[in-house]
Amino acid sequence: MNKTELMAYAAALPKAELHLHIEGSLEPELMFKLAQRNKIELPYKSVEEIRSAYQFSNLQDFLDIYYQGMSVLQTEEDFFDLTMAYLNRVRADNVRHVEIFFDPQGHTARGVPFGTAIGGILTAFSLAKIQFGMTTKLIMCFLRHLPEEDAFDTLKQAEPWLDQISGVGLDSSEVGHPPSKFERVFARAKELGLKLVAHAGEEGPPEYVYEALDQLTIDRLDHGNRSLEDQALIERLVREEMTLTVCPLSNLKLCVVDDLTSHPIKRMLDLGLRATINSDDPSYFGGYMNENFKGIIDALDLSKDDVRTLCENSFRGSFLSDGEKRAQLAKIAMV
Ligand SMILES: Nc1ncnc2[nH]cnc12
Ligand SMILES: [Zn+2]
């Protein structure tokens, strides 16, 4: 298969997205519309000016703009519109199942109640299920630059919705905020029956991945790129069939890699790691699911088997039931 055919194959395959911050899918056009609707002053005069501000040299550069951008999200309708726009967009990429992150502390700290954010997101989930049969799960992330106490407080606020939250995650500024800082709140989330995921090894060292495995007891690893610096860690991740939610265009935009030709996704597959493709914050990083596939297909020497494995891994690594996973894998085999 040449690259054009391989891209058409990737586009046609059913897939799941497992690493998507809903606030990072806020397109500049919607940001402007919500700013006007909510009478919020933005430091930009036009959509073009917003887009040109999206130049980052590391994770923190991005996070500063990301937290500022979410200030336009005020009402349940705003969160509904944001989520519906994302679900409609990735439907066109043949994404059939999503496990979405949201950052409640990014909203409650601005005086927007937990229920406003989650209410809008869950209503969009229900509509997407009815309208186009998409399945969805919600993962609530703790902001790691804040104290563990604040994470406990957020978990408490989540109590009325725990039956509609699949898991907890850990995001925001990685270096200086190791997973071990959140050991107790993750233990509590586990007692409550929630799945556990954490960003680790995006900018942070392999030790952070070990902490996420040993101290947080994660079910899935977000990013994990820097695991490749440690042979014993690679072998363990392979042995434990740990899913890595890898985000190629994010890695490029945040300078985790210099160029997509040096992206480690092919190496990860060759090592036997259960890697998946995801968009992270697509509005900020230049593309949704299929644009991430296009980026790696253009830059790397991926085979048809590699592309299929990436899509299969997205369901294997999901929090769907075994039966649901089998059904999705059977659909992949039909393409
Ligand atoms: N890529 C990322 N890493 C850490 N925190 C984030 N929050 C949103 N996107 C993130
Ligand atoms: Zn992320």
From TrEMBL:
Residues involved in substrate binding: D281
Enzyme Commission number, as recorded: 3.5.4.2
A GO MF term: hydrolase activity
Keyword Hydrolase: yes
Binding residue positions for Zn(2+): H19, H21, H199, D280
Chemical reaction(s) catalysed: adenine + H2O + H(+) = hypoxanthine + NH4(+)
Class of this enzyme: hydrolase
InterPro entries, A to Z: A_deaminase_dom, ADE, Ado/ade_deaminase, Metal_Hydrolase
Positions marked as site (Important for catalytic activity): H223
Cofactor mode of binding and number, as noted: Binds 1 zinc ion per subunit.
Pfam families documented for this protein: A_deaminase
SUPFAM superfamilies: Metallo-dependent hydrolases
Membership in a protein family: Belongs to the metallo-dependent hydrolases superfamily. Adenosine and AMP deaminases family. Adenine deaminase type 2 subfamily.
Alphabetized PANTHER family for the sequence: ADENINE DEAMINASE (PTHR43114)
Biological role: Catalyzes the hydrolytic deamination of adenine to hypoxanthine. Plays an important role in the purine salvage pathway and in nitrogen catabolism.
NCBIfam families from the UniProt entry: aden_deam (TIGR01430), PRK09358.1-6 (NF006850)
Name of the protein described by the UniProt record: Adenine deaminase
Species classification: Bacteria, Pseudomonadati, Pseudomonadota, Alphaproteobacteria, Parvularculales
